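Narrative summary of target 7.
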Amino acid sequence: MIAILGRLIAPYAIKLAGLFAIIGAVTAILLGARQAGRNAERVERMRRTIEVQREQLDAASRRPRDRDDLAHRMRHGSF
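Modeled conformation, tokenized:
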């Protein structure tokens, strides 16, 4: 029984192996593209986070030193 099945499959074995190789390659490419998209989104989110942190640090470095400086800045509209 197994010998008969082996003789039936043998002529198509190379074609089947090639077909499975093609399917595997296409699957790998699609999964790689999906991962690349995720990585690009992650990098963009990190870039925006760093930009916001930099803006916050810049704003903190220009803050008024005391209440008098705050009142002066608010009076002159330079806050």
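Residues 61 and 68 are 17 Å apart (CA to CA).
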